[in-house]
Design brief:
This protein is an alpha/beta fold. The chain has one domain. The chain contains 4 helices and 6 strands. Strands 1, 2, 3, 4, 5 and 6 form a 6-stranded mixed beta sheet that branches. β5 and β6 form a beta hairpin. It is globular, with a radius of gyration of 17 Å.
Length: 193
């Protein structure tokens, strides 16, 4: 998997607020750690089983993470443009479940670097591309500025079905990497405590 890492600080075009609000009543922030049954309200998770599995695992008690938002989309290029004209993508914003870790940007940067190291060991760099970007965000409840990690995954294929299948496999790999990093971080936290 090809991984692009963006850690540069600065004001992003979009600043995520957690929890976020939407004018669309069918799209709203759901705390899936607090209420795992809320996953039934996530349209993308209902349509895409790999995303559902990812959200369940990453928001579980076995994980130090929580998701703040997710989105999927598909695009198709002109078939004459190349061998893999179809692309299926997703974007997920991830935060630490222990809230205090979200106010130290270095925690998110360290997470992004660990994920980059694990994910670049993957094969198929032309079929899968991941972007890891540390974003500034505002946590509404404590009224503080912090960070989150945006993970964007793009999978290419010769057909829409192949692109989506590759995306599902890539998302499962990201899930495994996150759960591995979560275990390592739990051990480090336990040693310090």
């Amino acid at each position: 998997m090809r991984v692009e890492l963006a850690l540069e600080p600065g004001e992003p075009v979009e600043k995520l607020e957690i929890p976020w609000e939407s004018p669309d009543p069918t799209r709203r922030y759901l705390d899936l750690r607090d209420d795992p049954r809320g996953i039934a309200q996530v349209e993308e998770a209902r349509r895409h089983p790999p995303l559902r599995s990812f959200l369940v695992a990453v928001n579980s008690d076995d994980s130090l993470f929580a998701t703040a938002r997710c989105k999927t989309w598909q695009k198709q290029d002109d078939p004459s443009a190349g061998a893999s004209p179809c692309e299926f993508s997703s974007r997920l914003e991830l935060v630490f479940a222990p809230e205090q870790l979200n106010f130290d940007r270095r925690q998110h940067e360290g997470l992004a670097r660990r994920l980059e190291e694990l994910l670049t060991r993957e094969t198929a760099p032309d079929a899968l591309r991941s972007e890891l970007r540390v974003l500034s965000c505002r946590y509404r409840a404590p009224g503080r500025e912090g960070s989150c990690l945006r993970i964007t995954l793009h999978a290419r294929g010769t057909t829409p079905e192949q692109a989506e299948m590759r995306w599902g496999l890539g998302l499962a790999r990201i899930q495994q990497a996150l759960l591995f990093v979560s275990r390592v971080l739990r051990q480090q936290i336990a040693q310090v405590s």
